[in-house]
């Protein structure tokens, strides 16, 4: 939704209240939608550049993570969300979308796969 008082075509002018930002971290909140989750070191880099949401996949420093942006299986998706709890950002983990039967896809969605 849109915040109260924010409207389409809103202009900043003489009647706009400006808030001081000293001592604050203020960002519009960028979204990076193509992350290979290889290392926790990526998180501060994203944060420092104004990115507040990371969407992608992987399981850390594994060969499969280098090649794809999906997290294989419900167990790995749950572990990635557990690891992400330590960081002040928004995360979305993509599951693996190829399966001969639909149940493994459902398991990944139940585990929290964003897509």
UniProtKB/TrEMBL annotation:
Keywords, in A-Z order: Nickel
Biological pathway: Nitrogen metabolism; urea degradation; CO(2) and NH(3) from urea (urease route): step 1/1
Protein's recorded name: urease
Keyword Ribonucleoprotein (UniProt): no
TM ranges: none
Gene Ontology process terms (BP): urea catabolic process
Entry's EC annotation: 3.5.1.5
Cofactor section: Ni cation
Organism: uncultured prokaryote
